[in-house]
Amino acid sequence: MARRIVAHNRSLQPAAFWMDTPVNVVSSFDSVFVGKDGSVDTQRPVLAVFNARPSKLNGRIFASFGELRLFYLIGFIMAGVAFC
Fold first, then answer.
1. Does the pLDDT at position 1 exceed 70?
2. Are 71 and 79 within 8 A, CB to CB?
3. What is the pTM of this model?
4. Which of 21, 23, 39, 41 could form a disulfide with 33 if both were Cys (CB 3.0 to 4.6 A apart)?
5. What value does the mean pLDDT of the chain take?
């Protein structure tokens, strides 16, 4: 029995530029379900669907690099240009 739980306080961020299309990701989490009668089901996965903008994801990833984030960003851009 699957139920959908929607987070009403979360909304998709506005696009930073015209190619900033939403990215949808599905992830599976292991969980344990305890029934009303006390029975335990350890084989009940929970699926979570997330959506975000690539510009926001990249901003969060590169913010964790600290002072070197600009160096890494330029390196990733140069690698992408080399592969193209």
1. no
2. no
3. 0.48
4. 41
5. 81
84 vs 59 pLDDT, higher one = 84
Task: For helices 54-63 and 69-83, give the axis angle rounded to 10 degrees.
Answer: 130
Among 2, 3, 47, residue whose Cα is nearest residue 27? 47
Structure tokens, 42: 């350890």
Length of the chain: 84
Concatenate the DSSP letters of all residues of 45-78 into one string. -EEEEEEE-HHHHHHHHHHTTGGGHHHHHHHHHH
* Residue-wise pLDDT tens digits, 6-33: 777 878 888 888 888 888 888 888 888 8
